[in-house]
Amino acid sequence: MDSGSLSARILRKWWWFLLAVAPVLLWAGNKPSAPQHSAPQAHSAPAQHPNLGGGSHTNTNMNRGNTNVNRGNTNMNRGNTNVNRGNTNMNRGNTNTMNRGSTNTNRGNTNTMNRGNTNTNRGNTNTMNRGNTNMNRGNTNTMNRGNTNTNRGNTNTMNRGNTNTNRGNTNTMNRGNNMNRGNVHNAGTHGAPQNFHPHGTETHMAGGRTSIHDAHGRTYVTGRNGHVEHFAGHSGSANFRGNGHFRDVHARGMDVHYGLHGGRVYSGHFHDGGRYVGWGHGHGFVEHPMMWHGHAYVTRTYYWGGHPYAFAYRTYYWGGAPYYWYASPFYYHPAFYAWAWNPWPAPVYYPIGYWGWGGYPWYGYYGYYFAPAPVYPVASLWLADYLLAANLANSYQAQQDAMADANAGDSDAAPADNGNTSSNGQVQLSPEVKQAIADEVKRQLAAEQTASKAPGSAVPASDPSAPPALDPNNRVFVVSSQLDVSTDDGQECSLTPGDVVSRIDDSADSNKAVRVSILSSKKGDCSGGAMPRVQVADLQEMHNQFDQQVDAGTQALAKKQGQNGLPKAPDTGTVNGDAPQAQPDANAASELNDQQSQADQAAQDVQQEAFSDNGNSGGGNH
Question: Torsion angle, CA of 143/148/154/159, rounded to 10 degrees?
């Protein structure tokens, strides 16, 4: 071949090459620069990218073989768009024929370093997160690591005993769910596993129940559904609710009751004949016997809010059981009671600022239920609001203690709404109910005025024919501690401090209980109009607490009289009461803490013996 022909062929090749490349070079010089996307910050939701057609967030425009979406943005790709090396953004093989298999529908929004991974997901698109679905819509659950959070602020009901802090599965949107009685735990730390089936000699009982006695001398009672309702063994005994949680534990010489609303009450006796009643976290009372003028008394030291308070109670027996009668340590002169009993010269305007409750957590929490009167025409109404506030403050603290127990690992003590007759609607103490309480206050003021003329006469020298709680004149009671009660048809519900009941029966049944009517109750407690039965001993404690709070209220009123619009009292002098002022037990706090530890161990002992080596528990509580 001559040199002229060779040169002509080379020139023709370069000519066609330049014709093919020149347009591309011209376009590349005018191509807009690609905006840069910053990487998402740690613990935040993935950055949202603009929708570039058809709702696709993977910038694919759903090509499915349609190749005209790049609008000529193929310069120098040679098959790989933005270093993706052949991996399309969710096209799954629907390639752009100009990119040689790599489709880029970002229209300039390039992913510069993905190497085949979609928008910072490192290979996982939002629909392929392997369980880490992003349903929070901005409310990220920063500690779930693989747990889907669709609760939007509510705790996960499948935590199986984890408290609101979830031990790593922390939901950062709870904002106060610590008091949501409805956020219950599906499984308790203690209780009867619902897949547990004891083995032994069976005896069929009424109502579809079965008693099972095993080779180790232990007895189980199962209900119609086969779940364990009762256990008795060598370490102690226990009763269980339908959900498997403890109702009562009897072990180590003490009784432990787990409340329907959460929390627990443990009680027992000391060697000297005294007793203790604890509500958890150092709260409760201890009492020890004493003699006064030849009569049996007890000195009771309450430990509450980090402070001890001591009172004296006259001990007496009714129906073979001990009861206690509050003995006031002082009385005011009769003129003070007349001032407090009769209407004041003019109604007294008394805003919330005078009470000083506005900043307290309990006041805001129970704002739907209780509001002090703006005007007081008589002291008895002022005292009614005083003692209602004291009980609601106690109710709030009891819930805090229950939540603290749950956080410490005892989920059977967690607040929960399990009552079948509970009130879920918003209610408020009516003026009529407040007036009924004020009438009870007036009766107490009249009784104290009479006693002030003959100190020591209020407490009987001999055992009474019936406790004061059964006096026909004492009808209305303010609940002062958490109680689980049942109606005649077996429905269980709770009463908590600040609820108000009216006694219906004048005499007790064979179980020393009387029917009451619910006059007012908070959300989650027994509904208004329900008529459960209450133990006379519990009703007497309400009566004692009412008298104590009236005494505390009259002391506060005596200090405030003549201030903030309150009229001046004619006489605030006092005389000795029915018993000397009791002195606090210096060991009360440590004794309550010791007994709380014993209560923990009592439940563990029964749990271990009952469910460790009999039946097929399946290795879990539920």
Answer: -80
How far apart are alpha carbons 231 and 249 in whole angstroms?
A: 9
Handedness of CA 117, 119, 120, 123 (dihedral sign): negative
Q: Phi/psi of residue 492, each to 5°?
A: -105, 140
The three-point CA angle 445-449-455 to 5° equals 125
The pair of structure tokens assigned to 26 is: 């011209």
**Rounded Cα gap, residues 347 and 381, in angstroms:** 11
> Per residue in 330-362, pLDDT tens?
999 999 999 999 999 999 999 999 999 989 999
**Residue 130 in tokens:** 């392997």
- Residue 543, both tokens: 């009566």
Q: Are the C-beta atoms of residues 174 and 164 closer than 8 Å to each other?
A: yes
Render pLDDT for 242-289 as a digit per residue (tens, 0 to 9): 889 999 999 999 999 999 878 899 999 999 889 999 987 778 999 999
3-state helix, strand, coil split of the chain in percent (to 5) is 25, 20, 55
CA distance 419 to 493: 5
Residue 453 to residues 327, 332, 459, 555, 558, Cα–Cα distance (Å) = 16, 10, 14, 18, 19
Sign for the CA dihedral angle at 389, 395, 401, 403 comes to negative
CB atoms inside a 10 Å sphere around CB 336: 25
